[in-house]
Amino acid sequence: MVVPGPRRPSGEPGGHGGRPRVGRARDPLPAKLRFGILQRDGFRCRYCGRPCSTPGVVLHVEHVVPRAGGGATTEDNLLTACEECDLGKSTRAMVPAGS
Fold first, then answer.
1. Rounded-to-integer distance, Cα 13 and Cα 8, Å
2. Is pLDDT of 12 > 50?
């Protein structure tokens, strides 16, 4: 059972008057584009080289230049990254291995 935390008035930090938060939804990558990037990268993280066949490895398709930094959703700005490398980089640009 999930027990909700205390509600904060809308004036308090983190409070929204009990209303659900409405954030800007990210447009998902089309499945064909996502699969094409995974296939192009050999189903391996381009940063550390771990394959998806390694237990516990979850692969993401992510932007080299983050969308927040003006990066486009194009094949040349997308690559495969394991969850650890992807979530660890945040909005910092990283150089893929072998580049």
1. 8
2. no
